[in-house]
């Protein structure tokens, strides 16, 4: 029972981060299940089954708060679903660990770009632009495939790439990614059921993750609505850097493990300093906006 409560709390925390920053539910939950000794395919299947419910709750909340670009959702959903189903069906045959460091290196650099663009770029409200099909279709296919094979990846791939494009509002990127993830979770779940069967799924763990995620979903959607766009972008950029730094450091055999803590500490200080600078730029001595007003 204690383990289920812990899983529910993890599901709550993971969905709170995922719903407000557009990523981390699958990665966080899968990492926990793997730590408890569950096989990668079963862990990924359990997380995606939980996400069928949590992403539905998250999408409904984001729609309610006006955080969704329906065009982006439509163009991501079909290719993302196809990629997720294929990835889930062939997970045991795919050497995902071989390509993971290269994807993480790309996202690590992209995270710095996103952080810098929202910290030092034009913070005025961007013009709404329509993302082209030729851009969203391959993005959806690749992100859906990566999501199934790694137990998480839809948000970490689609959110920073969409944020790196000028003209897309941060809260609508996050809301659209979270809303479209429902179809990806359903497709991946179907693939896992076909390849693994029902009996290999840890249903109590799935239920615990679902409960925690459902409670957090509306809170996260509200946070996206009230947090200023530039601050939201800086927070997402830093999270992208931090989540991919671990994969990169573990992949670099030449980098001493004793220095991993120092590397995380430096990156954490950089992220914290960037958030502080983003707040100061909005509320500093040259601004006539209070901190409380900036969140309105």
Automatic annotation (TrEMBL):
Give the bilayer topology.
Multi-pass membrane protein
Q: Which UniProt keywords apply?
A: Cell membrane, Membrane, Transmembrane, Transmembrane helix
Q: Does the keyword Cell wall biogenesis/degradation apply?
A: no
A Pfam family annotated for this UniProt entry: TauE
Localization per Swiss-Prot or TrEMBL: Cell membrane; Membrane
Per the record, the major location class is membrane
Example GO CC term: the record gives: plasma membrane
Keyword Cytoplasm listed: no
Transmembrane regions? 32-55, 76-96, 102-120, 182-199, 205-224, 231-249, 261-280
Q: Which PANTHER family match?
A: MEMBRANE TRANSPORTER PROTEIN MJ0441-RELATED (PTHR43701), MEMBRANE TRANSPORTER PROTEIN YTNM-RELATED (PTHR43701:SF12)
Which family does this protein fall into? Belongs to the 4-toluene sulfonate uptake permease (TSUP) (TC 2.A.102) family.
The name of this protein is Probable membrane transporter protein
């Amino acid at each position: 029972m204690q383990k289920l409560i812990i899983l529910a709390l993890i599901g709550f925390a993971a969905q709170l981060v995922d719903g407000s920053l557009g990523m981390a539910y699958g990665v966080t939950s899968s990492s926990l299940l793997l730590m408890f000794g569950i096989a990668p395919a079963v862990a990924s299947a359990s997380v995606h089954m939980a996400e069928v419910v949590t992403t539905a709750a998250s999408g409904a909340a984001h729609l309610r708060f006006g955080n969704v670009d329906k065009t982006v959702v439509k163009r991501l959903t079909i290719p993302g679903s196809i990629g997720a189903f294929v990835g889930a069906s062939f997970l045991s045959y795919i050497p995902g660990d071989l390509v993971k460091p290269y994807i993480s290196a790309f996202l690590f650099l992209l995270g710095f770009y996103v952080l810098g663009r929202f910290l030092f770029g034009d913070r005025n409200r961007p013009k709404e632009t329509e993302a082209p099909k030729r851009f969203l279709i391959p993005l959806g296919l690749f992100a859906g495939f990566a999501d199934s094979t790694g137990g998480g990846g839809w948000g970490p791939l689609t959110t920073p790439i969409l944020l790196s494009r000028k003209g897309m509002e941060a809260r609508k990127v996050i809301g659209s990614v979270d809303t479209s993830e429902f179809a990806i979770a359903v497709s991946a779940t179907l693939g896992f059921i076909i390849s693994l069967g029902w009996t290999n799924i840890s249903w109590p763990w799935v239920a615990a993750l679902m409960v925690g995620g459902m409670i957090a979903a509306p809170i996260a959607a509200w946070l996206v609505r009230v947090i200023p766009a530039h601050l939201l972008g800086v927070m997402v950029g830093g999270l992208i850097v931090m989540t991919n730094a671990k994969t990169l450091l573990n992949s670099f055999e030449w980098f001493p493990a004793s220095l991993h803590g120092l590397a995380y500490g430096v990156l954490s200080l950089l992220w914290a300093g960037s958030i502080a600078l983003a707040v100061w730029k909005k509320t500093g001595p040259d601004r006539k906006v209070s901190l409380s007003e900036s969140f309105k």
